[in-house]
């Protein structure tokens, strides 16, 4: 188990006699080599949770083990085993891609060769370009490269593809899949549900400081067993029916309306999308809507 | 892209999960018996080089840092005439020593403070906090860069001062030694003060006010533009609490003829006091940094 969290609590005190619970009884497991996506609206506590997991915030209660150590007391050797790709940054503006990678590599005991890494993230043509002059997508590739410098066992990605064009996102996804195939554990924080669906073996939905649902994206909160909507064409018009037994309905339709080729015209069977499920989950939290005070 | 372990990228999910546990185990072993973490010294030197490179590539801050004291030196050097009291020493020499001290403070206090505020805003601090860099290396790097920029500034002003305004380089080894320790101590004290104050501005836009205001006020009351002894006693007492007055005085002891010592409030250079006050500010600034420095934003 790369990450194990039990009963994690974090309380903020925005004013003297007020307490806001940023994280409330949070449980999370991430297996070695797994890609887990952490989803949730702004202010749900994603950033706070990640900061506690990476040892940058103290917790008020609960057990946290990351790569076999408690992040609250872990040292540099532990930190060298974790790669972090922070949210959009604009640091190192006046340095070139190669300079930045060579510099940060000096902090790690086991590091990747700069040239290989630059090739791997697809920046071979920009090695001598200053970061200030890179496009948003190229800049994110640098951020990823910096996260990979120390050959991390755990990679934490915070909104990694914000600002990338669709083709750039796909390339980024391929890189992340290859890393996971190589055994790297990946924690992905994202607002893009298609990204979570494409990459993650499991997603966890965080709302108002607690995990309200977790599971494989295709089965999150029972969406694979939820009522399906079957649509078809009959009598020259579009028909649709919500059913909990779509196979039986389709079989009945095949007998009733199928043409000479045996096909049902215009047939689709849809279950609630990940987005539908997600929106239902974050709207139905016990503590009600998330207020700005609960932002970390 | 080469994957981090030897597994081919085409490996199935099951196979890769199996590989993952092996990978994890071998990495865990590597962290205990593998290559050691880079030392504080090595990372500090790397930080220092990076800070210096970044500074000299940022054209605007280079031009502002270096041109302001040079322009002030040239303009006021042409305007100011006459001698200090009855010492017979030209005021230009007095003023040039003061501008060098003020330039050192601008290159350290203002620059270091503004650069840390910028590091906080652009994500540098968040990034570094996520790496195994020893935190002390960040501060050491700022210090190394401050020394380099201050040395370049002082060298430039010294060259102009000796060429055009009658400043004399120290003639003895003792004079150079004094110049050395006054410079290093003054730079260190001003740099840690900039670091200590770097948590004060809420945005990098506010940082110019936070650092330039104390710098400008101290420049006017510390004996840069006006002979210190001619200032109202209250201002003299206020200035004596801060490092710039002592940095000016230490540099005057190096660059001005011995006769000029009569124009000091104590009729002497008080080098012991210079060392004491600058050293005390360095230690106080260091303590303040260690207790108040924030790597991440407020909770």
Features:
heterodimer; A: 296 residues; alpha/beta; Rossmann fold; 3 domains; 3-stranded antiparallel sheet; disordered C terminus; B: 299 residues; mainly alpha; 11 helices; 0% strand
What's the CATH first level of the largest domain in chain A?
Alpha Beta
Shape, per Cα inertia axes of chain B: elongated
What Rg of chain A, in angstroms, do the CA atoms define? 23 Å
- Helix segment tally of chain B: 11
Task: Provide a compact summary of the structure.
Chain A is of the alpha/beta class and 296 residues long. Chain A has helices spanning 46-53, 76-79, 97-105, 114-120, 136-148, 166-181, 193-199, 246-257, 274-283, and strands spanning 3-15, 18-30, 35-39, 61-66, 82-85, 154-158, 185-189, 202-207, 210-215, 228-234, 237-243, 268-270. Residues 284-296 of chain A have low confidence and may be disordered.
Describe this structure in words.
Chain A has 296 residues and is α/β, with parallel strands linked by helices. Residues 284-296 of chain A have low confidence and may be disordered. Chain A has helices spanning 46-53, 76-79, 97-105, 114-120, 136-148, 166-181, 193-199, 246-257, 274-283; strands at residues 3-15, 18-30, 35-39, 61-66, 82-85, 154-158, 185-189, 202-207, 210-215, 228-234, 237-243, 268-270. In chain A, strand 1 (3-15) and strand 2 form a beta hairpin. Chain B has one domain (38-292). Chain B is 71% helix and 0% strand. The two termini of chain B are 38 Å apart. At the A-B interface, helix 2, helix 3, helix 4 and helix 6 of A face helix 1, helix 2 and helix 5 of B.
Protein topology:
The complex is a heterodimer of chains A (296) and B (299).
Chain A: E1 3-15, E2 18-30, E3 35-39, H1 46-53, E4 61-66, H2 76-79, E5 82-85, H3 97-105, H4 114-120, H5 136-148, E6 154-158, H6 166-181, E7 185-189, H7 193-199, E8 202-207, E9 210-215, E10 228-234, E11 237-243, H8 246-257, E12 268-270, H9 274-283
Parallel strand pairs in A: 3-7, 3-8, 5-6, 6-7
Antiparallel strand pairs in A: 1-2, 1-4, 8-9, 10-11, 10-12
Chain B: H1 13-33, H2 40-57, H3 59-79, H4 91-122, H5 124-129, H6 135-164, H7 173-197, H8 204-221, H9 233-239, H10 243-255, H11 271-292
Helix pairs in contact in B: 2-6, 3-4, 3-6, 4-6, 4-7, 4-8, 4-10, 6-7, 7-10, 7-11, 10-11
């Amino acid at each position: 188990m790369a990450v194990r969290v039990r009963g994690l609590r974090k309380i903020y005190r925005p004013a003297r006699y007020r307490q806001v619970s940023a994280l409330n009884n949070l449980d999370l497991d991430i297996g070695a080599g797994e890609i887990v996506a952490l989803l949730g609206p702004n202010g749900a506590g994603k950033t706070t949770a990640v900061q506690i997991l990476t040892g940058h915030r103290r917790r008020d209660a609960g057990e946290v083990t990351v790569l076999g150590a408690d992040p609250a007391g872990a040292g540099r050797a532990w930190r060298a085993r974790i790669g972090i790709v922070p949210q959009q940054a604009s640091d190192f503006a006046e340095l070139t891609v190669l300079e930045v990678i060579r510099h940060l590599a000096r902090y790690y005991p086991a590091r990747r060769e700069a040239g290989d890494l630059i090739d791997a993230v697809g920046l071979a043509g920009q090695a001598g370009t200053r970061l200030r002059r890179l496009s948003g997508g190229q800049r994110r590739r640098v951020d990823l490269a910096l996260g990979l410098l120390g050959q991390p066992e755990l990679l934490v990605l915070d909104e990694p593809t914000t600002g990338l064009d669709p083709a750039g996102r796909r390339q980024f996804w391929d890189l992340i899949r290859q890393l996971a195939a190589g055994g790297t554990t990946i924690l992905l924080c994202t607002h893009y549900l298609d990204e979570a669906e494409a990459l993650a073996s499991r997603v966890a939905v965080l709302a108002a400081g607690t995990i309200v649902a977790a599971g494989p994206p295709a089965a999150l909160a029972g969406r694979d067993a939820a009522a399906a909507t079957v649509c078809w064409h009959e009598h020259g018009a579009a028909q649709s029916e919500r059913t909990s037994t779509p196979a039986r309905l389709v079989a009945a339709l095949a007998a009733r309306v199928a043409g000479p080729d045996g096909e049902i015209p215009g047939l689709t069977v849809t279950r609630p999308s990940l987005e539908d499920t997600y929106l239902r989950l974050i709207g139905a939290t016990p503590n009600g809507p998330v207020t700005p005070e609960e932002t970390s | 892209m080469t994957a981090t372990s030897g597994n081919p990228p085409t490996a199935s999910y099951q196979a890769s999960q199996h590989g993952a546990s092996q990978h994890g185990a071998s990495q865990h072993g590597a962290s205990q018996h593998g290559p050691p973490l880079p030392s504080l010294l090595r990372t500090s030197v790397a930080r220092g080089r990076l800070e210096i490179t970044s500074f000299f590539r940022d054209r605007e801050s280079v031009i502002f840092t270096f041109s302001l004291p040079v322009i002030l030196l040239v303009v006021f050097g042409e305007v100011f005439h006459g001698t200090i009291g009855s010492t017979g020493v030209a005021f230009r020499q007095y003023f040039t020593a003061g501008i060098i001290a003020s330039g050192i403070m601008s290159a350290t206090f203002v620059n270091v403070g503004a650069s840390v505020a910028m590091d906080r805003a652009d994500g540098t601090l968040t990034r570094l906090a996520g790496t195994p860099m020893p935190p002390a290396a960040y501060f050491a790097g700022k210090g190394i860069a401050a020394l380099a920029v201050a040395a370049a500034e002082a060298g430039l002003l010294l060259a102009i001062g000796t060429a055009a305004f009658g400043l004399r380089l120290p003639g003895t080894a003792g004079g150079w030694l004094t110049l050395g320790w006054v410079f290093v101590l003054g730079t260190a004290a001003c740099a840690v003060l900039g670091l200590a104050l770097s948590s004060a501005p809420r945005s990098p836009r506010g940082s110019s006010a936070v650092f330039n205001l104390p710098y400008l006020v101290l420049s006017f009351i510390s004996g840069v533009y006006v002979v210190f002894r001619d200032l109202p006693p209250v201002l003299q007492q206020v200035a004596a609490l801060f490092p710039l007055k002592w940095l000016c005085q230490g540099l005057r002891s190096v660059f001005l003829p011995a006769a000029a010592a009569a124009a000091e409030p104590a009729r002497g250079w008080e080098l012991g006091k210079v060392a004491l006050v600058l050293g005390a500010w360095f230690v106080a600034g260091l303590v303040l940094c260690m207790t108040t420095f924030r790597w991440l934003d407020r909770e």
